[in-house]
Design goal:
The structure is a single chain. This protein is an alpha/beta fold. The protein folds into 2 domains: 157 residues, Lyase, Ornithine Decarboxylase, Chain A, domain 1; 244 residues, TIM Barrel (Alpha-Beta Barrel). The protein is 29% helix and 25% strand. It contains 12 helices and 20 strands. The strands form 3 sheets. Strands 4, 13, 14, 15, 16, 17, 18, 19 and 20 form a 9-stranded mixed sheet that branches. It starts with a strand and ends in an 8-residue tail after the last helix. Bound molecules: pyridoxal-5'-phosphate (PLP). Pyridoxal-5'-phosphate binds next to helix 10. Pyridoxal-5'-phosphate (PLP) binds next to helix 10.
């Protein structure tokens, strides 16, 4: 295991988390190189010999060194902004393996991505298709597109991370998608290359994926019958991970089921995993500032907060919280909270912990949607990030300084 309990405390690969905290301070994100590559292999091994491309959905964690690890493994990338594209390029990724998702692509986003020669725009509406067509015409080129269809499948997840239902803002219903495909097929500045679907996140069952797949295959078959051939099927991301006691599907089973249903169709299949590649490869390391023992509840006030890890506040997400070193004594039930001035600022509630002021805690499974959703709320510099490979540490992001927070701000000079 990449994060493992030893008698001298919790380790990441061959290093104690306590030594990482000593060297780099807290709060600090700590990633395991072995866990990242292991998660990649779960996809790559199952896809070996199949016509497929993994496009890491980098919004899960877009730190340059994380992208570098996946780029070197041959990954493509799923981006949602031109800023993410610049990160791919800075990390040594290949724009020709980039797909561009998202409902609100700006003109600048599209211009930049088209000029960089990305693999495909995943189009989310008719007006977006028209905008891409106009920009491609201005650049005297053709934009490769797929339409993100909305298959009206309930992924059975938290409403904030479900995207494949009719009422969501994402994707285009099949009937309307057909109109978009006919328009694109007839256009000199658009090239239809795929059909795209993405139904949500932290999905732990196979059934919703397969329901969406079957509906999408039927739709693509209909396109082919009209003479609108595609090159690839993009099945999006959404494969869940274990935070607590979930029994998530494994990529190999999903992949096997996909190819069973594809039959002899010659399409390449794209996958856009985010969470499943990075979620369990990172922890947020934090130190107990104060123990505040009240009449109703006990609080462990730590130096990490909702600005560092938003998921508990935003989705009521549950992360395991483990003491880095075991301490004797009867555990007490604490709400583990940060210093931010919001009642919604918590990392975990009602956790039985045997801890004292100054102890280190590890918030587990924090590699996805942790650092990438962090902010400077309350003028808190963002955490450092450290990648551990065996016993070697790489500081992949310096802790922000307070001065960094002022950059670009101006007094009015009154
Ligand atoms: C967020 C997102 C993903 C990744 O989802 P995970 O649940 O992290 O795998 C993939 N594709 C699209 C279009 C997304 O919006």
């Amino acid at each position: 295991m990449s994060f493992n309990q030893q008698t001298e405390g919790l380790h990441v690969e061959g290093l104690s988390l306590a030594s990482v905290a000593d060297q780099y301070g807290t709060p600090c994100y700590v990633y395991s190189h072995a866990a990242l590559t292991g998660a990649w292999r779960a996809w790559a091994d199952a896809l070996a010999g199949r016509n497929a491309l993994v496009c890491y959905a980098m919004k899960a964690n877009s730190s340059l060194a994380i992208l570098e690890v996946f780029a070197q493994l041959g990954s493509g990338f799923d981006i949602v902004s031109a800023g993410e594209l610049e990160r791919v390029i800075a990390a040594g990724g290949d724009p020709a393996r980039v797909v561009f998702s998202g409902v609100g692509k700006s003109r600048q986003d599209i211009e930049r991505a088209l000029a960089a020669g990305i693999l495909c725009f995943n189009v989310e509406s008719y007006p977006e298709l028209l905008r891409i067509e106009a920009i491609a015409a201005a650049q005297r080129t053709r934009a490769r597109i797929s339409v993100r269809v909305n298959p009206d499948v309930d992924a059975g997840t938290h409403p904030y991370i479900s995207t494949g239902l009719r009422e969501n803002k994402f994707g285009v219903p099949f009937a309307e998608a057909l109109t978009l495909y006919r328009h694109a097929h007839a256009s000199t500045h658009l090239e239809v290359v795929g059909v795209d679907v993405h139904i949500g996140s932290q999905i732990t069952e196979l059934a919703p994926f397969l329901e969406a797949l079957e509906r999408t295959i039927a739709f693509a078959d209909g396109l082919a019958a009209e003479g609108i051939g595609i090159h690839h099927l993009d099945l999006g991301g959404g494969v869940g991970i274990r935070y607590r006691d979930e029994e998530p599907i494994i990529p190999a089973d999903y992949i096997e089921a996909v190819w069973q249903r594809l039959g002899k169709r010659p399409w390449q299949v794209l996958f856009e995993p985010g969470r499943s590649l990075v979620g369990n490869a990172g922890v947020l390391l934090t130190r107990v500032e104060y123990l505040k023992v009240g009449a109703e509840r006990h609080f462990a006030i730590v130096d990490a907060a909702m600005n560092d890890l938003l998921r508990p506040s935003l989705y009521e997400a549950w992360h395991d919280i483990r003491p880095v070193s075991q301490r004797a004594g009867t555990p007490i039930e604490y709400d583990v909270v940060g210093p931010v001035c919001e009642s919604g600022d918590f990392l975990g509630r009602a956790r039985a912990l045997s801890i004292a002021e100054g102890d280190l805690l590890a918030v587990m499974s924090a590699g996805a949607y942790g650092m990438s959703m962090s902010s400077n709320y309350n003028s808190r510099p963002r955490a450092a990030e450290v990648l551990v490979d065996g016993t070697t540490t790489h500081l992949i992001r310096e802790r922000e300084s307070v001065k960094d927070l002022f950059r670009g701000e101006h007094l009015i000079g009154g």
